[in-house]
Amino acid sequence: MATRLQQRPGDESVLLRLSHSNLKTFSSEIRLSLQTPVESVKEKLWRKCGTSMDSMCLELYDDTGSKVSNLDDNSRPLGFYSPLDGYRLHIIDLDPSSVTSGGWLEDTSLVEKYQISDEAYDKRDGTFKKFKEKIATQNASAFEPKITDNYMGDLCMSVKVGDRCEVEPGAKRGVVKFVGKAESLAPGFWIGVQYDEPLGKHDGMVKGARYFECPPLHGAMVRPDKVKVGDYPERDIFEEDEI
């Protein structure tokens, strides 16, 4: 034994990879003292994987996957078996009724799930469903739409169909073609605009409902706060050209 330990002068521990006969996805590393008895090694591994010490056999493999030895003497120190950093310690579980057998530790679909009927659940107190019902009773407004039917209606009072307008962002100019509520859109007031240029998204029909007529890709439905009405004539496409 002394000769074997002398093969690692100045190094009294080793870093080993771990694998398990029943747990195919089990992958870990452990650093162990070379003076640690095999029995103590098994105790440490039991805490990692759940295999009992009495049902555990250990095999040592080198970094090429070749078997080096069986750690079959619990009284021997780990260093007796000449492990090196990177070697693999394979745990074999001999107990057919072990917690590691059957695959349920890795595949949760094999675990029997707790189920409860809707009737039994409704009879329970302190459930999330009862909590939601209580909150809804105390504050019914919390579940009402935040946007009312008259949303931005005050901004439409000075806007009428036929007004010239400018729409932000982008300072797009056009003419107002619709003012009011749009059933196919969110609650509140909307303004339909026919742009002077093809900067829109449709021809006045939105989600199957027609609100106005205009050439394709010239129409837009926007909120009133994005629209300014006034003296916004069509732009001359040559007005910014150099003279």
Short summary of the structure?
The chain is built from 4 helices and 12 strands, in the order αββαβββααβββββββ.
Walkthrough of the structure:
GO terms for molecular function: alpha-tubulin binding; microtubule plus-end binding. InterPro entries: CAP-Gly_dom_sf (IPR036859), CAP-Gly_domain (IPR000938), TBCB_Ubl (IPR045172), Ubiquitin-like_dom (IPR000626), Ubiquitin-like_domsf (IPR029071). Keywords: Chaperone, Cytoplasm. By secondary structure, the protein is an alpha+beta fold. It is 14% helix and 26% strand. The chain has four helices and twelve strands, in the order αββαβββααβββββββ. The chain has helices spanning 2-5, 38-49, 118-123, 128-138, and strands spanning 13-20, 28-33, 56-61, 67-70, 88-93, 164-167, 172-181, 189-195, 205-206, 209-210, 219-222, 227-229. The strands form three sheets. Strands 2-1-5-3-4 form a five-stranded mixed β-sheet, with helices on one face. A hairpin with a 7-residue loop joins strand 1 (13-20) and strand 2 (28-33). The protein is elongated. The model is unreliable at 1-8 (pLDDT under 50).
